Amino acid sequence: MEKVREMLTGNSSAAWGVRLAEVDYLPSYPITPQTEVIETLSKWVNEGLMDATFVTLDSEHSMITAAGAASATGVRTFTATSSQGLLFGFEMLYTVAGWRVPLVMLNVSRGLSSPITLEPDHNDVLAARDSGFLQIHCETCQEALDSILMAYRLAEDERVLLPVLVNIDGFHLSFTREPVEIPDVETVRRFLPPYRPKHAFFKASQPMSQGVAVLGGAVYSYFKYQMHLAALNSLDVYKTVAQEFYEIFGRSYPVIEGYMAEDADYLLIMTNSFSTTGKAAIKRARDKGIKAGMLRLRLIRPFPELDIQNAVKQAKAVAVFDQNISIGKGGILYSEIAGALYHEKARPLLLSFIGGLGGKPVSASEFEFIIESMIHAAETGKVPGRQLLYTEDEWSEINRLKGMAGKQ
Amino acid sequence: MSTVERRGSSLYVKSLRLYFMNTDINYKRYLKLDLLPTPWCPGCGNGIVLKAVCQAFDELNLPKEGTVIVSGIGCAGRSAGFFDLDSVHTAHGRAIPVAEGIKYANDALTVVVLSGDGDLLGIGGNHLLHAIRRNTNITVVCYANEIYGMTGGQVSPLTPHNAKTVTSPLGNADFPIDVQSYFKNRNSYFARTTAFHLNHLKKSIVEALKFKGFSFVEARTMCIVNYGRRVGYKNSHEMLMHYKEFYKVSDDTEELSQNEIGILRHTAGL
Ligand SMILES: Cc1ncc(C[n+]2csc(CCOP(=O)(O)OP(=O)(O)O)c2C)c(N)n1
Ligand code: SF4
Ligand SMILES: [Mg+2]
After folding, report:
1. Domains and CATH numbers, chain A
2. Residue A62 CB less than 6 A away from ligand 1
3. pTM for the whole thing?
4. Which of A63, A398, B31, B61 is the most buried (most CB within 10 A)?
5. Ligand 2 neighbourhood includes B79 CB (under 6 angstroms)
6. Atom of ligand 1 nearest to the CA of A84
7. Residue at B195 is within a domain
8. In whole angstroms, what separates CA A378 from the centre of its chain?
9. CB neighbours (10 Å) of residue A120?
10. pLDDT tens by residue, B186-204
11. Containing domain of residue B82, as a range?
């Protein structure tokens, strides 16, 4: 295999994943910070570098609908959106997942309105967590490309047949260039052969009804639970797919990535691109002799409960960094992880931090604060309440703005 | 003004004020001047449309407390924020229903939508059709730059056939919407105008505001940065000159041909 490395943004790396997956249909609608993905694909299609149909729809709602429907014909389909766009198409997420079609969709995370903003947090993608779309969250540009390929394998597996959302952070990953290894198409075909659907799909001379009404809870429950079981199946399928990916491409993508985690007393749990700065903070803590480590969750749906239970077993304290806020509850991942640990006899203290909302940078001192809080909690046995990470400088800036608005 | 005042010469200030009044700066009272300049690119036509809207308000002497601006998302959508009036900057495509909600809640208000062609005709297109059907008494000014400007220059519902954009690098395969056709057989007001034809632009907006019922102004305007330069214009002046040469004024006809601007008033159903 000839190795080609290029400096790619997260967006163009994801586009490369789509190109290498030899996707047939690309319904699109632009939204910052996703636009580069669809522009790149449109260019390749127009230049004849991709044998696919590229169409701009009038909104994300029609885009996701068209994508799901095309997927139901057995055509490999890709689409991408972000934030407001994901929410605008939300109705169709549940619908398309219920169709059990192997659609792969990229979400380029961005904070939700109102107020209007551009930089990332994960309230957009996590809003879709109950829809039936599986979710893979990426830290690096390479991971964006690789995850698209893995997502098709996962979605098209007949034990799964659920759509997959691949998430990258807007700006921080979408517009950051990193060296990315672009595999050749022959090798990719070995990993991801053309899609030949065996199960329900539209084809000529074989009429089939999709999305029929079932007026009755019993039938409805049956179908919903089928989806749930398929999502649970996908955890093992993912592990096989990841193993095969490793064997072919030499890059390993476990469900949860551990960083200096094995012997760690203090574990920080994060997702997506901010994990990179988190890892740097862990490294600095290690240099000071603190046994800190990180768990980065890659797979959020299915939620890898068992893997989490095992990974935190020997830690004294665990801090969950939620780059999201469930208004009126708190960090979403914190709640899910707490739920996963409830029945564990030897469960660590669990701290909750909310940070990076709307892309707010997380400084070294904020990470230090998290680690110190874990140490303090372990020493005293007292777990502090949920905390919003916010620096003094940011607070004085807010006060200045409030002054301008006459609200002091 | 404040820099002038700091010089301390009251005589100078007075004469300057007089001079400004003669050249009609009254329209500025509708704007939050401390927010200017706008973030729009140099050469962008949006400022021309924004100014014409304010001048139309001024001509009708609309009271500041009785006028509301609603914008969706996009470069044009930034308009709402510059007004020293009650304003809403709502979600992409949703400007018309927000405006309708305000109007139906308080009929005494003048409610004006300022938004882009993508916002009003694409993702929000359905709302437009039904606002026309309900004949809600609001005015919509569409900044018709034929492109999704804010997101970097993708095909919009008004992008001409064959035009090159970042999502149609070999030319747009689709044909643009002929917006005036939505207004046929309706009691309605539709105007097409351009950022070059300043008097016509202002008149189109004034008449729209005076119209009892749903009124729509399609104001052709230049997005040089994310559209014009990609389809062969060197600068936005060239785009203005294109408007000047291409469009002929033809008010009060039944239907505008492609190269005509004008005001259409349909009275079906009356
Ligand atoms: C639901 C949703 N989808 C996509 C976007 C991204 N978006 C922002 S502005 C815009 C297009 C704006 O085009 P237009 O309305 O013509 O305004 P212009 O920028 O050209 O003035 C899009 C697609 C969004 N904000 N919300
Ligand atoms: S991108 Fe186009 S529409 Fe937007 S401000 Fe610039 S010139 Fe104007
Ligand atoms: Mg536009």
Report:
1. 4-249 (3.40.50.970), 258-395 (3.40.50.920)
2. no
3. 0.94
4. A63
5. no
6. 1
7. yes
8. 31
9. 32
10. 889 999 999 999 999 999 9
11. 31-267
